[in-house]
Amino acid sequence: MTDLTERTDLPTEPDERSVLMTMLRYVRETVHFKCIGVSAADAVRAPLDTSPLMTVNGLVNHLLWVEKHWIEGVFLGRDIGGEFTDEDPDWEMRTAVEHPLDELLAAYAAQAAANDEVIAAGDLDRMSVKKRRGGDPFPMRWIVLHLIEETARHNGHLDVIREIVDGSTGA
């Protein structure tokens, strides 16, 4: 991973793939940046009474499973494992407190790197193996945009959680 203080959302080339992958890399690196210096105790602390699963660890683990779901599960059609059930739909958030933050961040980075290889392996118009509820597959382009959107949204949650648990603010 690059020096996180030097991360940028400016692509080196103006083409669509460069722009999308730069933005995806930027929001992923921002997840790591927002976790710098958080203590083990604060990483598993849920400061919002109405959201008892909302922890730094929970958000990182959720993003790991989001990446795994969309690329391995939906696009490639693989069984991704996990212990998600109707009774425990937030399994990844609940169990994240059982793992050290650095372990979750390493797993997230590894999943992102593996996903980048899949994304780079072909055209953005390639279609997913699994289909939408209406029966149409998802184009890779949409999946990449969705990963950017969801990761950016959860970076906002990380901002709020960090500020509440330890006062840390910043980009």
Labels describing this entry:
171 residues, mainly alpha, Four Helix Bundle (Hemerythrin (Met), subunit A), 6 helices, 5% strand
What do you see in this structure?
The protein has six helices and two strands; from the N terminus they run αααααββα. Helices cover 56% and strands 5% of the residues. Strand 1 (127-131) and strand 2 (137-139) form a beta hairpin. Helix 1 (16-35) runs antiparallel to helix 5 (101-120), helix 1 packs parallel to helix 6 and helix 3 (56-75) runs parallel beside helix 5 (101-120). Strands 1-2 form a two-stranded antiparallel sheet. The chain has one domain (20-166): Up-down Bundle (Four Helix Bundle (Hemerythrin (Met), subunit A)), CATH 1.20.120. The chain has 171 residues and is mostly helical. The protein has helices at residues 16-35, 40-43, 56-75, 91-95, 101-120, 140-166; strands at 127-131, 137-139. It is globular, with a radius of gyration of 16 Å.
Structural topology:
Layout: H1 16-35, H2 40-43, H3 56-75, H4 91-95, H5 101-120, E1 127-131, E2 137-139, H6 140-166
Antiparallel strand pairs: 1-2
Helix pairs in contact: 1-5, 1-6, 3-5, 3-6
